[in-house]
Amino acid sequence: MNFVENLKWRGMLQDIMPGAEDQLQKELTTAYVGIDPTADSLHIGHLVSVMMLKHLQEAGHQPIVLVGGATGMIGDPSGKSLERNLLDEQSIQYNMDCIRKQLRKFLDFDSSRKNVAIMVNNYDWMKNYSFLGFIRDIGKHITVNYMMAKDSVKKRLTGEARDGMSFTEFSYQLVQATDFLELYQLYNCKLQMGGSDQWGNITTGSELIRRVLGKEAFGLTCPLITKADGGKFGKTETGNIWLDPEKTSPYKFYQFWLNCSDEDAERYIKIFTLFSHEHISELIAKHREAPHLRLLQKELAKDLTIRVHSEEDYNAAIEASNILFGNSTTENLKNIPVDMLLSVFEGVPQATVSREAINNGINIVDLLSDTTGFFPSKGEVRRSLKENAISINKNKVDETYIVDSKDIIGDKLILAQKGKKNYYLVLAI
After folding, report:
1. How far is Cα 59 from Cα 241, in angstroms, rounded to an integer?
2. DSSP character for 367?
3. Distance (Å, whole) CA 366 – CA 373
């Protein structure tokens, strides 16, 4: 199955220009995707285009990642109703360095193969243009009528957005078209790929190449991914699901994929993994026989957590899940990084207690009532203890138990629990 057929099967193809598939079947073809470095991490919304590049490289073609150092200073109006905040050059450079590290987990930038991945920064050529030079060398080739016919421009000019569109944003498609022209000349890049909201920018680029060089260039897009319930893919109540573990912990990353619906899991397993068509079809069939086992979600969560983070983080996420939903032990707790534990118990009642007080020892009744306020009274603590309902770090304790330094996990916290579902965190400071 060739690259285009593979994208179709995986549900990753929306629009394709005539001749693009013939070009890809004719010879090794260089193609690019643009990413604006507006943050110091990619989020899972970027993964669709990154996986397009991965499938492209697996099919024997050459991927280019264009990190938009120049376009990141402007802001792409496509699909947006408000103008984006502009970034300074130093912030963009830092963001680029972070993004490059993340992309290495997906694309081969280092081997000697002919189709080794390349990363470029469009600021490298855009910085050489003066304003007069740009409107003379680029602007004269594309008419205002052509630019205004694009959906991304029309929506902003017909009153759907309160603030209209600045000239800076209006010029964005010319800047992106210039990228395609430059990459064609530098790397013989004949294909641009992106989300369906980029179709207007992509076709402007191929048109500029035709008018300036008299050559043919192509584009294809993937659908914008949404959830089955119509919600925005990759968004949670707390915001984006990031690839950076400091922004989204490996546990939360794992849980996002594990908790997706059956319908979404069937789509995501095709889009976000490199599993073969046969293996995916087999997984889907098994899942439909016993959906309560959540086989698809587990395979998806495992594959992506290992790819984006590590196998160690994946195993820790499994251990962390068992704390909440399984029969874990003190040893299990000690094997999980403290940061991940804090992520697991985000939102549960927490209290800080001085390390000195803990080192001196605190009776369990005093700790859970007067010291932390987790229980409204000592009487209620004692009742729960008599019912054998209180645990410290997953060990059942009685009224005589003294909490001290031996109970501090990772030099930072103590986990108290009432029954199966009520957790409390004591943070030692």
Report:
1. 29
2. I
3. 9
Nearest to 31 by CA among 67, 72, 65: 65
* 270, two tokens: 């095709």
For residues 367 and 379, the answer to whether their CB atoms sit within 8 Å is no
Say if residues 192 and 217 touch (Cβ distance below 8 Å).
yes
Look-up of token digits 């073609």: 61
Q: Where do the DSSP E strands lie in 102-226?
A: 118-121, 189-195, 218-222
The 10s digit of each residue's pLDDT in 143-194 is: 888 888 877 787 777 765 556 777 877 888 899 999 999 999 999 999 999 9
E strands in 37-101: 62-67
The rounded distance, in Å, linking the Cα atoms of 412 and 339 is: 10
In terms of Cβ atoms closer than 10 Å to its own Cβ (0-12, 13-18, 19+), residue 253 is buried
Contact 7, 51 (CB under 8 A): no
Which is nearest to 317 in space by CA: 303, 296, 334, 302?
302
Q: Are 317 and 341 in contact (CB under 8 A)?
A: no
User: What is the bridge-based pairing of β-strands 413-418 and 422-428?
Assistant: antiparallel
Do the strands 239-240 and 422-428 form a parallel or antiparallel pair, or are they unpaired? unpaired
- What letter does residue 371 receive in the DSSP assignment? I
Q: Which residue has the tokens 């035709």?
A: 210
This prediction has a pTM of 0.83
82 has pLDDT over 50:
no
Residues catalogued as catalytic: 38, 43, 46, 80, 84, 176, 197, 232, 235-236
Token duo for residue 66? 């264009």
With a CB cutoff of 8 Å and minimum separation 6, the contacts of 53 are 31, 33, 63, 65, 106, 107, 117, 193
C-alpha pair distances (Å), 35 with each of 119, 260, 326: 11, 26, 41
Residue 363 host element (H or E) = strand 362-363
Q: How far apart are CA 235 and CA 91, in angstroms?
A: 24
According to the model, what pLDDT value does residue 160 have?
56
| Residue 31: strand, helix, or coil | strand
Nearest to 234 by CA among 216, 214, 252, 251: 252
Q: Which two tokens stand for residue 349?
A: 């009642």
d(CA 415, CA 400): 18
Could you tell me the two tokens for 16? 């394709």
